[in-house]
Amino acid sequence: MAIGVRGILMKAFVSRAKHRLNLKQFSAALNNGYCYSAYATQHFFDAGQPTAETHPQLVAAGEITPGITEQEYVARRKKLLELLPEKSLVIMASAPVKMMTDVVPYPFRQDADYLYFTGCQQPGGIAVLSDEFGLCMFMPDSDPEEEIWRGQVAGTYAALNTFKADQTFSISKLHMLLPDMIAKACKLYHNRNIASSDYADLPAFKKALNESNVHYLCKYTHEARWIKSPSEMNIMRQSAAITCQVL
């Protein structure tokens, strides 16, 4: 049964009373992404998507997304870097949010490459990958007013603890940190179909583009997915079984 706004607020304030939090502590807990249940004494971190802690019926311990472990995401990124020339830098942007009206978004669908290599199912982030820096995720800043309507959004804490990034920074620092990463790279790779202005408008990126040093990434990401892992094949079998039941 769907719970209305009044029901959600009532549960939140019952939870606040149960845990004896003052208003300042209660607000801080919500802003930090921690959720309190009115029916339990434990609290858990809300990463903005199902995790083993919040949805154990969907995500097992050690998995980032259903059926795919942390180690497999690391192996995917390693395989991609092995396909690229030495000292390459990969820039992957999450898919943009598309609006149905001025205030109502369409259901969000993550970019396939960004999801495949990070496990993050949410908008607003940019992932940078290289041998030198590992996985560096630039994550959106928290906007409590926006999160009232769209829910919790993963930030830098989730990047390190949920998606297992090697480094993470606020997206607001991208313009300060990415130019140095670009300068150290011999070749840049990105998906031009969903290029984000957050990095595409940087002078360092434009310079590399003018020097023909920016290349199309999808050729390599598609090759990295040709051979399926046992866990991927298991998910495909489950999907096929569900589809057959529907038919």
Sheet with most strands: 6 strands, mixed
Overall form: globular
Q: Average pLDDT value?
A: 85
Helix content: 40-55%
Distance between the termini: 27 Å
Rounded to the nearest angstrom, the radius of gyration is: 20 Å
Short structural description:
By secondary structure, the chain is α/β, with parallel strands linked by helices.
Please give the structural blueprint.
Layout: H1 5-18, H2 23-31, E1 34-36, E2 43-45, E3 63-65, E4 68-69, H3 70-83, E5 88-93, H4 112-118, E6 126-130, E7 134-139, H5 144-150, H6 156-161, E8 167-170, H7 174-184, E9 187-190, H8 197-200, H9 203-210, E10 214-216, H10 218-224, H11 230-246
Parallel strand pairs: 5-9, 7-8, 9-10
Antiparallel strand pairs: 1-2, 3-4, 5-6, 6-7
Note down, in words, how this protein is organized.
There is one protein chain. The protein is of the alpha/beta class and 247 residues long. It contains 11 helices and 10 strands. A 6-stranded mixed beta sheet has the order 8-7-6-5-9-10, sandwiched between helices. Strands 1-2 form a two-stranded antiparallel ribbon. The chain has a two-stranded antiparallel sheet with strand order 3-4. The two termini are 27 Å apart. The model is unreliable at 1-19 (pLDDT under 50).
Features:
247 residues, alpha/beta, 6-stranded mixed beta sheet, two-stranded antiparallel sheet, 16% strand
